[in-house]
Amino acid sequence: MFSAIARVFRTPDLQRKIWFTLGIVAIYRLGAFVPAPGVDYGNVQMCLAQGNTSGGLYSFVNMFSGGAMLQVSVFALGIMPYITASIIVQLLRVVIPHFEALHREGAQGQAKMTQYTRYLTIALGVLNATTLVSLARTGALLNCNLPIVPNDSLWTILLMIITLTAGTGLIMWLGEQITERGVGNGMSLLIFVSIAAGFPAGMAQIFTTQGWRTAFIVLLVGILTIALVVFVEESQRRVPVQYAKRQIGRRTVGGTTTYIPIKVNMAGVIPVIFASSILMLPGILIQFNTPQDGTPPPDWVVFLSQYFGDGAHPVYMAAYFLMTIFFTYFYVTITFNPEEISDNMKKYGGFIPGVRAGRPTEQYLQYVISRITFVGALYLGMLAMIPLVAFVLINANQNFPFGGTSILIMVGVALQTLKQINAQMEQRNYEGLLR
């Protein structure tokens, strides 16, 4: 293994890309600790030390920002506005024919959709920055009585919103630079770094509060979860496809056998993000509709607080699990089009052995994908439950280091990056990084 890593750094072009990627990552992590203008950094650290933050509500967003959100730094919004914008643009293909037409145009259409994603990212950045600054001003973000923004004049608030939005734009640009000039997918790598940055603190907290036995059990569960994620993410159903021989001029083409790879988890982590985002809404409604003068809150606020204010409540867990399954089917239905695949196979003379071309092929693919998606949906639901179950069993906070979502993202990004490095090594040395 070490000799393979040494070969990577002996390749000048690949070595330059890796160092460039590490430099961008260093800049990204540095921005997570630079406080936004108008923020009292000392008070922020004192509030975080008290441990009364709204971690359960904002932990998911805070995880994607590498802890920068609760630090109220210039990169507080992290990569979440870009992720949300990418998902929205992808979903708009279903309802807006223009986006579907762009998707079919290839590289030129994809570049146009990327431009739309950038514009939407900035718009969402302004919206998220306004919400974050409002929460910081009122103290609801950190549940602390110390003033986070001592001078809440209009100019200070506008400057904070502009700075946080610019931070989002800079993160988007850094990710694109890694994709173009570095190694791996830039946005995915930044998410990887953000999640990995919270692992040492999470393990240290469990070791301090629960002891070494619990820390060892958590580490063992994390290793088993990683093994499960690697196994499932690499698992796929291969549907065989044969192409009939055709005579084009003097050449005979076709007659080959290939397959359609259908992954067990085709939706990735998107369903978990959808479910988490929706389940954040009750917590936000509770915070903004709870009277500060000590008067009893409305009945609907009491209902939301009872069932959705705590992630350890069985109703919350059941809703999270069922919504993850629902969004898995929803996302796969949007992204996998059996009719389009069937038409393309028929156009080029392909067929599935034992299945007639056309409508029967479409029905067969729909049957296969529905069965595979059921397994993938249960798998994602189980991964989403890991931090919630840990919260009940060992009284861990919502930033449980080996949560299923974080492991799923990290393993997926690591596998993707290793495969790209391996492909570049095979192009240059005929011997890859992986054997």
TrEMBL record:
<keyword id="KW-0812">Transmembrane</keyword>
<feature type="transmembrane region" description="Helical">
    <location>
        <begin position="214"/>
        <end position="232"/>
    </location>
</feature>
<keyword id="KW-1133">Transmembrane helix</keyword>
<dbReference type="InterPro" id="IPR030659">
    <property type="entry name" value="SecY_CS"/>
</dbReference>
<feature type="transmembrane region" description="Helical">
    <location>
        <begin position="269"/>
        <end position="288"/>
    </location>
</feature>
<keyword id="KW-0653">Protein transport</keyword>
<feature type="transmembrane region" description="Helical">
    <location>
        <begin position="187"/>
        <end position="208"/>
    </location>
</feature>
<feature type="transmembrane region" description="Helical">
    <location>
        <begin position="116"/>
        <end position="135"/>
    </location>
</feature>
<dbReference type="GO" id="GO:0005886">
    <property type="term" value="C:plasma membrane"/>
</dbReference>
<dbReference type="GO" id="GO:0006605">
    <property type="term" value="P:protein targeting"/>
</dbReference>
<keyword id="KW-0811">Translocation</keyword>
<keyword id="KW-0813">Transport</keyword>
<comment type="similarity">
    <text>Belongs to the SecY/SEC61-alpha family.</text>
</comment>
<feature type="transmembrane region" description="Helical">
    <location>
        <begin position="400"/>
        <end position="418"/>
    </location>
</feature>
<dbReference type="Pfam" id="PF00344">
    <property type="entry name" value="SecY"/>
</dbReference>
<comment type="subunit">
    <text>Component of the Sec protein translocase complex. Heterotrimer consisting of SecY, SecE and SecG subunits. The heterotrimers can form oligomers, although 1 heterotrimer is thought to be able to translocate proteins. Interacts with the ribosome. Interacts with SecDF, and other proteins may be involved. Interacts with SecA.</text>
</comment>
<dbReference type="InterPro" id="IPR026593">
    <property type="entry name" value="SecY"/>
</dbReference>
<keyword id="KW-1003">Cell membrane</keyword>
<feature type="transmembrane region" description="Helical">
    <location>
        <begin position="155"/>
        <end position="175"/>
    </location>
</feature>
<dbReference type="InterPro" id="IPR023201">
    <property type="entry name" value="SecY_dom_sf"/>
</dbReference>
<feature type="transmembrane region" description="Helical">
    <location>
        <begin position="68"/>
        <end position="95"/>
    </location>
</feature>
<dbReference type="GO" id="GO:0043952">
    <property type="term" value="P:protein transport by the Sec complex"/>
</dbReference>
<keyword id="KW-0472">Membrane</keyword>
<protein>
    <recommendedName>
        <fullName>Protein translocase subunit SecY</fullName>
    </recommendedName>
</protein>
<dbReference type="GO" id="GO:0065002">
    <property type="term" value="P:intracellular protein transmembrane transport"/>
</dbReference>
<feature type="transmembrane region" description="Helical">
    <location>
        <begin position="18"/>
        <end position="36"/>
    </location>
</feature>
<feature type="transmembrane region" description="Helical">
    <location>
        <begin position="315"/>
        <end position="336"/>
    </location>
</feature>
<dbReference type="InterPro" id="IPR002208">
    <property type="entry name" value="SecY/SEC61-alpha"/>
</dbReference>
<feature type="transmembrane region" description="Helical">
    <location>
        <begin position="372"/>
        <end position="394"/>
    </location>
</feature>
<comment type="function">
    <text>The central subunit of the protein translocation channel SecYEG. Consists of two halves formed by TMs 1-5 and 6-10. These two domains form a lateral gate at the front which open onto the bilayer between TMs 2 and 7, and are clamped together by SecE at the back. The channel is closed by both a pore ring composed of hydrophobic SecY resides and a short helix (helix 2A) on the extracellular side of the membrane which forms a plug. The plug probably moves laterally to allow the channel to open. The ring and the pore may move independently.</text>
</comment>
